[in-house]
User: Fold these one by one.
Assistant:
Number 1:
Amino acid sequence: MTAERYLEEWRTAEIITAEQHALLLALVRRQRFSIFLELNALLYLGVVAIAGGIAWTAEEHVASIGDPAIIVSLTIVFAGCVWYCVSRAAPYSHERVAAPTFSFDYVLYLGCLVFAAEVAFVEYRFRLLGDAWDNYLLASAALYVALAYRFDNRFVLSLALSTLGAWFGVRLSASAFFAGSMREIAIAYGALVAAAGVAAHRQRIKRHFLETYLHVAANAILFGLASAVVDRGSTLWLAALLAACGAAIASGIRFRRFAFVVYGVVYAYAGISAKALTIFHGDVSVLAYFTISAAAVVAGLVLVARWCGREE
């Protein structure tokens, strides 16, 4: 009996799903299959590794290389990345614009990371802004937003939003209203990002960017609420967290965005566990709780993924 016949019998007996059957059949027949996601992941990690190596080299060998050489080199790399993108990019459009080359998005992302490394190096060496150093974050975020929209790059948009979040936290943590409380800042920032994404979507400006805004907003809001539950143990905060997690899970299932289901489940589990630890006493009961609950969470996620999961 051939391997193809075995696979057909397994599919008929529902030992494997139709999707698994198609994948295994393609392997048996030595057909081509896509490794697009794997290549993208490797390129992304490669870009991050290169940027990290550049930053490490600048820090460790500044005495032998010299400040001017490092600054000029980083500027050339950044300018080269931007020139590469400008010379190959299609005209700007409010709609989705496909990357002209496979490496286009990663070259732009590398340029942005190199720019961040250069800005950090300049401030570290020369202290140009002193206590106002957070303005670097704001200026960098503005640059990243402009590049993200011009070149239709969600990687850079995520970098822009995270940089803006850092500035938001530094700036507001010093204000009397927030009194250094990062959880309220995270919630406020998440709400602001979500509102900005929805507003741009309604204006039909890069509508496909909305999901990136919502990813950042969901994590910021849920992290802030979970942090409040862990630190304060308030039932009111826990109720707010569970409501927000429920909204994330429901939206993820409705729109086939499994990542939001994961966000909701993980943050809800963190909040419930923080509350449970105030009830359970003794190593055995705590171990039993985490063993059973973690297994239930993983099993639940697997079932939901099979039912509504979508390749993202």
Number 2:
Amino acid sequence: MCEVNPEYLKDLRYKNGKKTLYLRILKAIYGMIESALLWYELYHTNLKEMGFEVNPYDRCVANEIIEGKQFTMRWYVDNNKVSHVDDKVNAMIVDVIEK
């Protein structure tokens, strides 16, 4: 990292005889536990604001009654599966999520 950006040399420390670089990360890095948690919290919050109720047994499933029928959304990382008897409702929710 110091070879790429020599400004980091001032932050270089030695720990147990090994070079160690401590940095503050300003944004979540994809693939890290913290970024997965931040993504989940954002997703969860947005769905609740849209009126969804998160399933207490599977925290990656949320339901809402739309046009008198149950709409279910399941997600894993950044993959979603939506289901409703009316395909127009599915398309409408997907459009909202993509924005």
Number 3:
Amino acid sequence: MGEVNIGRGRFMANKPFGLAVRAVVLNDKDQCLLLRRSPNNKTNIGRWELPGGKVVPCEDFVQALKREVKEEAGIDISIIKAVDAVQIELPALSVVRLIMEAWLV
């Protein structure tokens, strides 16, 4: 299969899909947690982003998000609800990113 146009974007139909999760972590003042990528990262050095990451095969996405936030920020969260899903095209992979609202525990 070749390149396919859907809506406003394009994707390669023969690329595998990956699943990633991100958290909009809010505190009692409705402030949102953003993390800045380390200079040691392979990609997007210095970029600000929501905490989260890849879901490993057969892993529950809620547990994956809690694990990723704990690894990255050292905090525990409670997942409230899904707020969005987006598809991101990387050179070798189409990533579906699930964005969840969360609160500090």
